[in-house]
Write a structure and sequence with these properties.
Blueprint: H1 3-24, H2 36-44, E1 51-55, E2 58-63, E3 71-77, E4 85-86, H3 99-107, E5 120-122, E6 125-128, E7 138-145, E8 157-165
Amino acid sequence: MTFKAIALALIGAAALAQGSAAQAQTSYSQGPFASEQALVAYWQGQNFGQTEIFLDGRKVHARTTGFGPPLTEMYFTCKKSSLDIRVHCGNYNDPDYDLAGLIDLFDTNNHTRPAYLRDAYLDGQLFVDIASSTNGTGSYWKTCIGDPSRNYPSGIPYYLFQRVVPGFSPQPPLPMCPPRSSQKLR
């Protein structure tokens, strides 16, 4: 073998080893965390390269250096269910970035019964149309916009349950999106 062939073989082997190591470290904790401080401390101790970590739409941790594809993850404070911090709270009354998952939780009453499908409205517009459902009835959801991210320069989106129509009287207060970090009063 020539020197060039040996060098290329060594470079290829090193690239494979680095790729395997990167693949091996693709799992991370989705919660629960007891506090924002515990979440940030966990991510400060991880070696994922470039990361952006959000909590309830606020960027709470960012690492701008490192190799590999950048990782953006959103966590939520589960105020209506487990009272801790997770990627997915598992209750339609808690926020999430997966609107389809939230609608499924709503339709199955948090997986406690078979699905009872109803129309779903996002920001007042029909989002899921169920033929057997009466228009205007169903679940209503709101889009919240969090802090900017490399993938969402205008702000990272997530969703809140608002109400059921027809619902109970009187209607509960509608949940509000928290202000973005850049909008908070100083």
